[in-house]
Amino acid sequence: MSLINYASREINCKIVYYGPGLGGKTTNIKYIYSKISPGIRGKLISLATELDRTLFFDFLPVDVGNIKGFKTRFHLYTVPGQVYYNASRKLILKGVDGIIFVADSQIERFDDNIDSVENMKENLAVIGLSIIKLPFVIQYNKRDLPNISSLDKLESILNPMKVPYFEAVATQGIGVFDTLKACSKLVIRTLSR
Amino acid sequence: MPFESVNIFEQDFWEINENLEMLRKQANAESVLLIDKAGQLITSAGDVSEIDISSFASLSAADFAATSQLALLIGESEFNTLFHQGKKLSLYVSVISQSVILVVIFSQRTTLGLVRLKVNNSVKNLEMIFRRIFEKLGTVKEEKEQEFGEDFFEEADSEIDNLFT
Prior knowledge:
The complex is a heterodimer of chains A (193) and B (165). Chain A has helices spanning 25-35, 86-93, 110-126, 151-158, 176-189, and strands spanning 3-5, 10-18, 45-48, 54-67, 70-78, 98-104, 136-141, 165-167.
């Protein structure tokens, strides 16, 4: 639910990182936080457990700048990936403008990725949204690990809609900004709807 | 309806601001914030310069969303108001038109009773304004197409490329 304020000339959009637990969603957002100028980002809020697993969400506001007189800002959120935090995931999806699905490329996590995609579709349906209509990109993370599924296999199962996808090693920042850029641009294009 | 894009135009915006300022004065509160359910600040009244507004708005929306789910678990459709009491400052949170969250930050200069009373009055006015805003949603497409055309997208792409490198 983008918020467009014509009086104060402000646009706020919400992008959510979705995906299975320990897939790298928080790593993405932490890398972004560490690399962009403090002047254009807000505080990184992490509602996490004592073991640093996301409990509710991570949140990072980023100012894109002034576009045609509109101060434009993206609000980046992650959902908790662990299966039993589904109630929290549903809440974070409310008002979402674009989704980045962070898939874990490791072979043993293949089924977890599929479960998470299905869970995302179900949770979107609950709030009357569909992934078909939302800006959506996929990131295949952990491409540096030895035991990973082939890109073809991941693509054939996880990306039937053929949305933009990116290979990433979020711990090193590889693919992190490319993924965010792609999703941000898609979200901006939905503003005229 | 609650998850449609919110578009606020000049007249509605100033009317909202007037209502918030009036509420702040009448309730003798420190500040008043209006936040959408996605966690984005719509506007505020009073001095909020000491507050990290983005974080505050995001956490307020999350707080309200989580509490609404608690309500469902005990068979309530929603808790319309929340109250968080602190030593110096407290929060009174109320929902408007099921899609906007009103947060009043107040100190011991006032009382919970007065804040509650004045919020109840303001909520009625704000609900009327938001009803109008939501009714307009279907009719703003043309204006949006004018504002957000190809040149807007190109400039946005360029900013995004520069920012995320």
